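Problem: given the chain below (158 residues), write out its structure.
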Amino acid sequence: MKAAQQRLLSDPDFVVTKVSAPTSATPGSSFQVTVEVCNRGGSGGGTDLNLYFSDDAEISLDDLWAVSAYVGYLSPGQCQSQPVGLTASVPTYGPWYVGAYADPYGSQVESDETNNALASELMGIGHGADFVITSVTGPSSATHGQSITTQVTICNRG
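Solution.
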């Protein structure tokens, strides 16, 4: 058992730590996503990286594949931010996540195979407006019947 634990601790462990995508895109347009992959394992290596469109934040191989890339050699503890170009090609317009999945087919033996995927913040793909309330401010209390002033900030991210 101890030898198996040492082997696992000495394997690479590719972790997607950040996926940055724009807040919106028009259908068919090209845009850039930045993915950060870190090696938290005990040895170095490189890995395949797939990007997907997903209707939820749980990224899996069943999501809509978008593009593949390769992350070059990462030493233990090293991270790399990699820009990846995508095209907004989805079956329906609306809210989508862009997800990144390191070592998607399990071809690299890793110390932890459960931490390879991560989703971006939600983005809108379509032609319409996407109104988002970004802040609401007002007094912390008021008495019944008292007039109050509030401020609401609405952004169109569409």
